[in-house]
Structures are given as C-alpha cells and as structure tokens.
Amino acid sequence: QVQLVASGGGLVKPGGSLRLSCVASGFSFTDYYMSWIRQAPGKGPEWISDVGGSGSPISYAASVKGRFTISRDNANNSLYLQMNNLRAEDTAVYYCARDAELIWSGYFDHWGQGAPVIVSS
Amino acid sequence: EIVLTQSPGTLSLSAGDRATLSCRASHSVNSKYLAWYQQKPGQAPRLLIYGASSRATAFPDRFTGSGSGTDFSLTINRLEPEDSAVYYCQQYSMSPITFGQGTRLEIK
After folding, report:
1. Per-residue pLDDT of chain B (108 residues; tens, 9 = 90+)
2. Which of A60, A108, A110, A113 to mutate to test the interface with B (most CBs of B within 10 A)?
3. Which of A36, A87, B67, B75 sits at a 20 to 30 Å CA gap from A78?
4. More confident site: A103 or A58
5. Peptide bond preceding B81: is omega within 30 degrees of 0, i.e. cis?
C-alpha cells in the first residue's frame, strides 16, 4: 500500500533553516508529481510546492518562493523540502502528498502523516 | 489566485440528517477541477471527491459532490457519528492550488 513518511520537523528560531524529508513506498515514485502542503494551526491547508517525477518542473507558492527549495531523490524514493530564512508565519504541520494521477492533476490522493514545524525564539 | 470561501463555518446536525456544505470560488473553476477532503483531528486530509463529483473509493455513496463554475457543494446523506470532521474544498483549475478554510461538521 502507498505510504508517505515525513520527518525532520522541529523547533527553529526565526531566520533559521530546516530540511524536511518524505520517504515514499508502495508505488512507482518516479511516475508521480509530489507536493509539500502545510497547515497552520486552525487553518486550511496551503499548497507550497510541487515537483515533477523526473525532478522538474518545479513550482512554488509566492509565500515561500526564494526561501524554500523542493527536491527529490528517485533512487531512494525520497522527497525533500529545504526551508531557509524561516519566519513565525511558517509555523505549521508540513505534509508531503502524492498527486492523484500519472500526469499532473493537482489533487492529492495520498498524504503523509505530517511533520510539525514551529518557528519561535 | 482563486479564493475559496466555505460555509457554514460549523454545522451541527444529528445522526441520520443530511448535511449540505458549500464552497464558493472567487473566479470560475474550469472543467470542474474541484476536490473535497475530510480531515479528522490529528490526521492528514483524506481525498473524498475530485472532479467536483467523482467519489474516492474509500467513501460510501452517502457522499455526493456537485456544482460548477463558482458554486460547489458537498452533500452527506444519512449522517453517521464517524462523519464528524472538518471538510475542505480545493481548486486545481488555476495556479496556485488553493484550499478553502473548512467547514466543521459536528454530529450531535
């Protein structure tokens, strides 16, 4: 069965950096776009970035462009999110999610369990 | 970007009732590129509806999605206690992908 296991969350000071990882199993990882989606406490989800199966194309939400970098290692079925210059408003649970179709569809049929990120001094 | 506004914020109904949740888009959503998700406390969202009206296999036919353009709805018939959750709509018609703020459904 499809599994997405995220890790790397934690407490970080404003201006700091963090790298999230997501290990995928149960499907052909290279066939699917993958996204990072975050959810601040009490809010709806916010899509922040996606990457094609081969490592491109890559897209970012305006709120993280220039600060966050998405990447993937298909040999190890892994997705990453490098987060730099973190701000208090980046505090959220970060989910990795699989696009639902073999070509980009934009909706998500499998989500990881979430990695909490707290940005606070 | 397309802003999705969900109403009501909270819906409190009894088991056996019918729930109707609304999702209104600030701009027309093309080709019914609208999804619904169910989220229970401490869990990730689960895909419920895609293409405005296609139901994910894990959910029974009590759940129905409908609508087009800027007005979409999710109807849940014969409510059961396990339907208590927050429901989010999401559009994938225009970049960036956006989600609504959610409707909390409580089963009395």
Report:
1. 999 999 999 999 999 999 999 999 999 998 789 999 999 999 999 999 999 999 999 999 999 999 999 999 999 999 999 999 999 999 999 999 999 999 999 998
2. A108
3. A87
4. A58
5. no
Structure confidence at residue B52 (pLDDT): 96
Kindly state whether B38 is in contact with chain A, defined as any CB-CB distance less than 8 angstroms.
no
Interface with A, mutate which of B92, B98, B103 (most A CBs under 10 A): B92
Closest Cα of chain A to B102: distance in Å?
6
pLDDT digits (tens, 9 = 90+) for A19-57: 999 999 999 999 999 999 999 999 999 999 999 999 999
Q: How far is B36 from chain A (nearest CA, A)?
A: 9
Contact B33 A106 (CB under 8 A): yes
pLDDT at res. A103:
84
What is the strand order of the sheet B19-29 is part of?
B4-7, B19-29, B63-76
pLDDT at residue B32 in the model: 80
DSSP E strands in chain A: the ranges are 3-7, 10-12, 18-25, 34-39, 46-51, 58-60, 68-73, 78-83, 92-99, 108-111, 115-119
The answer to whether A113 contacts chain B (CB < 8 Å) is: yes
For chain A, count helices (H), then strands (E).
0, 11
